[in-house]
Amino acid sequence: MKNYLHTSLILTAFLLAGCEGYIYTFNKQPVFDPPILFSNYKIPDPALKTCIDQAIIDQQVVSPDKLTQLNCSSAGIADLTGLEIFSGLTHINLSQNSLVEIKPLLFLSRPAVINLENNDQLFCTDGQLLAQLVSDSVKLPSHCEK
Question: What is the average pLDDT value for the chain, to the nearest integer?
Fold first, then answer.
C-alpha cells in the first residue's frame, strides 16, 4: 500500500510539473500564478530583438535587470540601440555580427565579459573605451587590438 501511495504522489508531482504554465486555483482562488516574462522594451534591430526574446524565455526574465547573459554570436546584428535597458547584463557575446557602433554597451552598469570579435566594421574608439571600463575581459576585433 505504501508503494502505491508513494508511486501515486511521484506521478502526480511529475504531471503537475509539466503544467507549470497554467494558473492553479483552489476554491476559485489562485494558488500558483506563473511569472509574466518581461516584454516592455523596444529594440529596432530585428536580429537583436529575436536574440533577446529567446534569452528572456531561456532565463525566465521578469524585469530588465534580471537578464544577465546574452549570446548573440553570428546573429546578423547591426544595431545595439535599446540594449542599455538590460542593466543586469554581465556576459555578452556579440561576436561575428555586423556591428559598427557599440555605444549602448558603454551604459551597462556591470558588464564582466564582452566578446566583440569578428565585427570587422566596428569603430575601435568605442571598443577601446569599453575595454578600459571593463578591464581585460573585452575581446575586440583584430583590427582594434592595441
Answer: 86
Q: Note the pLDDT of residue 111.
A: 87
Q: What's 46-144's CATH class?
A: alpha beta
- Average pLDDT (19-26) is 57
Give CA–CA dist 23/57, Å, rounded. 18
Q: What is the pTM of this model?
A: 0.77
Dihedral over Cα of 78, 64, 60, 62: its sign:
negative
- Residue 56: Cβ-neighbour burial (10 angstroms; 0-12, 13-18, 19+): buried
